[in-house]
Amino acid sequence: MKTELKHYTVEEILKGFVYNELEGKGLFGLDGKLVIQPEYQRNYIYNDGKRDVAVIDSLLKGYPLGLIYFNVEGSTLEVLDGQQRITSVGRFVTGKFAIKVDGREQTFSSLTKDQQRTILDTPLDIYECDGTEDEIKAWFQTINIAGVPLNKQELLNAIYSGPFITRAKAEYSNSNNANMQKWQSYVNGDPKRQQILEEALDWVASSQGLSIDAYLAQHRLDQDIAQLKTYFTSVIDWVGSVFIRPPDREMRGLEWGRLYEAHHGTSYSATKIEARVNELRADPAVHSSKGIYEYLLGGENQPQLLDIRLFDPKDKRIAYEQQTTKAKVAGESNCPLCALGGDTNKARIYKQDEMDADHVTAWSKGGSTSLSNLTMLCVPHNRSKGNR
Ligand SMILES: [Zn+2]
């Protein structure tokens, strides 16, 4: 890879600057010769009133903006590193936002001529890199974008850039997508940082036993994203059909892809599920609200998902030994409920693995999970008392 240090002024770079408000990205500069956001680049994320303002402050104070890298692509140039900074300056100069100078809100056009010249005449140090696509991408992985390193999915987007990623980003990395709010009730993260896309890819890739890397390698040149879309939509629609309530905050960020794979073949009564969600969310014994959804999907077989405290195995053994010794002397069952009953189990001595620990005073009523509040019951009696 060949690199050459060039010098441009801000004014030269911004000649013919175009910012696409809808897609939220800077597009062109250098009088049309420069592509500011090639498809492997991340979206513009500096428009937060802090990082973009800091770029302009730096220029006004005469601080350098740091190195910028362009990729030579035939007769055009692409920004390899520096897109956020260039787009910030371009947006300011074209009147897209204001900054405070000496306590007053100022747009570019309200600055003094001297201040405007200070910005436009700032020299930028730019390395123009000429290499193969693979060289550029390998190198792109090793550089750190000023202040905000690329996250995992942003890197993958760069490495596997192509028609598939372009279309996938248009769907899942676009905050203006009409479905985004619904998706974000179930999926954590920022679409601009590619986190919705990452989840969508993870779900479909995992369903085929693949990593996101491997999936993208297979589909890189695909002209459509139908499979990705269909799978993602199926998962989201399935969650909404089983849990008909407006999504709880705790539903956000659950592993819905895995849960869909495990349970979408099971039929559920949405109204019964709804009633149980309400009961469990109101139950003080349930420490993990996040676990409720998977617990119900699994048929209420894994109470550990609810983070209800369990008895210590040592306490269970001690209680078992004490009850059993007493029961043998009295000639009755070591399950106190069987001993009370009149049936054939009245004098039955259970083995420890035929019994379960039960709270004498229910956990939900403030009973402690300690030896003093522990009775061993036979499994059927323990079950019939329910999970209280
Ligand atoms: Zn019993």
Task: Annotate the secondary structure layout.
Blueprint: E1 2-9, H1 10-14, E2 18-20, E3 25-29, E4 34-35, H2 51-60, E5 68-73, E6 76-81, H3 83-93, E7 99-101, E8 104-106, H4 113-120, E9 123-130, H5 133-142, H6 152-159, H7 163-172, H8 180-186, H9 195-207, H10 212-219, H11 226-242, H12 256-263, H13 270-282, H14 292-297, H15 313-330, H16 336-340, E10 355-359, E11 374-378, H17 379-385
Helix pairs in contact: 2-3, 9-10, 9-11, 9-12
This protein binds zinc ion.
What does this structure look like?
- There is one protein chain.
- This protein has helices at residues 10-14, 51-60, 83-93, 113-120, 133-142, 152-159, 163-172, 180-186, 195-207, 212-219, 226-242, 256-263, 270-282, 292-297, 313-330, 336-340, 379-385, and strands at 2-9, 18-20, 25-29, 34-35, 68-73, 76-81, 99-101, 104-106, 123-130, 355-359, 374-378.
- Strand 3 and strand 4 form a beta hairpin.
- The model has no long low-confidence stretch (mean pLDDT 88).
- The chain has a 7-stranded mixed sheet with strand order 1-9-5-6-4-3-2.
- The protein has 388 residues and is of the alpha+beta class.
